[in-house]
Amino acid sequence: MRTQVGIIGAGPAGLLLSHLLHLRGISSVVLERRSREHVEQRVRAGVLEQGTVDTLIAAGVGERLLREGLPHEGIELRYGGAAHRIPFEKLVPDRRITVYGQQEVVRDLIDARLAAGGDLRFEVDDVEVHDLEGAPYVTFGGERLDCEVIAGCDGFHGVSRPSIPEGVLTVFEREYPFAWLGVLARVRPSAEELIYARTDRGFALHSMRSPEVSRFYLQVPPDADLADWPDERVWAELKARLETIPGFTLETGEILEKGVTPMRSFVAEPMQYGRLYLAGDSAHIVPPTGAKGLNLAVADVNNLTEALAAYFATGATDLLDGYSAACLRRVWRAQHFSWWMTTLLHTFDDEDAYGRRLQLSYLDYVTSSAAAATTLAENYVGLS
Ligand code: FAD
Ligand code: DHB
């Protein structure tokens, strides 16, 4: 079997790349370890930057997103018994974010690929990449796929990055002493905008998916066990961390899904080796506080599409050669922003009273100075 681009992983990065390449007349095969149902039901990100929305609309997969996505022009920071709105419409006019579940993006992309006759293989075992510096090919489940280029879109735990020979990559990494417990619940959102809450009990985030479904996250210990978090405890803790301003009541409802996500910052440089190009979480991870991971994956894929289109049209390799450098500037801005939002809003067990005062001082600055609030707003909606 032969294709132009062998794509490992059917997350947002792999599916979008396959679709954008198809629109440029470039063939690909997507190899995914999990089932279609699993990939479509995996609850993860929810915040799309304007640039991500624009990409999906231009690619012809924005119809449901435009209908069901929830545009937001601000977020709330809640701490010290008060609510502080960061007004995007004032600080970064004409740019907004859209709340639309990652699994909906994945569903829309799978539908588009299959409608166009795309070759998506789910539940493939033992994917391995070979001859990355020569004539690359992928083996899986006893089959062989020859390609001109391989795109490693297989997330943080995939096979692509570890296939790069030792000594090529430089890794930059930070782990955080906590995790997020994510909860999806059938209950009307208790607020119109996202609430990022800092309390002495830890961080909490109130997000949403639709007028009937809310999404929440709680800072929990890194080794948290779901068995210790029955629904009643989840609601009690969410109430304790969110019902901290006068007049706010958190509505409760049926919990549909719960999961624990570790928090990590990670970058592997360069994002390419020979004819293998990494995109999305396979090359970099951010803690989710800044809502950047999915958006970075889309930005990588846009760069890779342009580079591959030039290569297949004319044989030019300059954009491919510069792919990693082109991505890393945005990657590092998002790394800093995600680290900054995380340290601003979480409690750290080893933090002394001085550190807590610094945190509160910075929160006061961000919520009282237009310059500081603009820094948050322009990073949150996404730098171009
Ligand atoms: P993935 O989505 O991880 O996809 C990789 C795919 O490769 C998977 O389908 C996997 O099964 C497959 N795969 C892995 N190994 C193999 C193999 N050996 N062979 C074949 N296939 C393989 N980002 C945001 O932008 N905004 C947010 O609001 C946000 N919130 C988040 C909240 C949570 C709780 C979490 C966990 C993440 C959040 N993120 C957010 C991050 C975002 O979900 C990821 O950055 C995004 O999924 C990256 O997409 P990807 O396609 O690179 O990787
Ligand atoms: C969501 C996730 C995030 O990481 C975030 O910062 C905001 C919202 C969400 O899943 O809705």
TrEMBL record:
Entry annotated with the keyword Flavoprotein: yes
PANTHER family found in the cross-reference section: P-HYDROXYBENZOATE HYDROXYLASE, TRK SYSTEM POTASSIUM UPTAKE PROTEIN
SUPFAM superfamilies in UniProt: FAD-linked reductases, C-terminal domain (SSF54373), FAD/NAD(P)-binding domain (SSF51905)
Chain coiled-coil ranges: none
Domain FAD-binding span(s) in chain numbering: 2-337
Gene Ontology MF annotations: 4-hydroxybenzoate 3-monooxygenase activity; FAD binding
InterPro entries linked: FAD-bd (IPR002938), FAD/NAD-bd_sf (IPR036188), RIFMO-like (IPR050641)
Name the UniProt record assigns to this protein: p-hydroxybenzoate 3-monooxygenase
Keywords: FAD, Flavoprotein, Monooxygenase, Oxidoreductase
Residues spanning the signal sequence: none
UniProt superkingdom: Bacteria
Species for this entry: Nonomuraea endophytica
Its EC number(s): 1.14.13.2
